[in-house]
Amino acid sequence: MDDRQAMRASDHDRQEVVDLLRAAVGDGRLRMDEYVDRMELAYRAVTHGDLVPLHADLPAAGPAIGPGAAAPAAPRATASRYCLVAAFAGLPAVLRVLWTIWLTAVSVNVVVWGLVSLTTAHLIYPWPLWVAGPYGAVLFALSAPFAASRRSRDRLVAARRP
Prior knowledge:
There is one protein chain. By secondary structure, this protein is mainly α. The protein folds into 2 domains: about 5-70, no CATH class; about 85-160. The chain has 8 helices and no strands. Helix 2 packs antiparallel against helix 3 (about 30-45), helix 2 runs parallel beside helix 4 (about 50-55) and helix 7 (about 95-120) runs antiparallel to helix 8 (about 130-160). The chain is elongated and about 70 Å long.
C-alpha cells in the first residue's frame, strides 16, 4: 500500500470528498441514497485509502485524494457562499446541539411574541430579546475560539501548499 493511502485522513480531507460527492449529486452522477451512503463512509474514513474508493468512479474534476496527490484547498466561492453553515459545521457536536436548542427556543419565543402582538393589536415589549441575548452571547463566547482556531489552522494549511 502506498504511503499516502496509509496516511490518516483529516477532517478537511473528508470534507473535500463529501464536497466532491455533493457536486456529483448536483451533476446527476449519483442518486441521493448513494450520496448519503458514501457521505457516511467518508465521515467514518480513517485513512486516505478509505476515501479513494468513494469517488474513484467519478470524474477527477474535484479534489484529488489519491496516491501522490496533495489535497487542494476548497474553492473560495463555496467557502464564502456557505460561510455560516461551514462555521456551524466546524463546531464540536456539543456546541452544535446547544446552538440548535438556542435557535429553537428563540424561534418559539419570537412566534409567541408575534402572535400576542397581533392578537392584542399593538406591539408589546420585545421580551424574546431576554431569551435570545444572554444565552446567545454565552454561546457565541464559547463558539468563537473554535471558529478562530479553525480559521488559523486553515490559513496555515493554505500557506504550506504551493
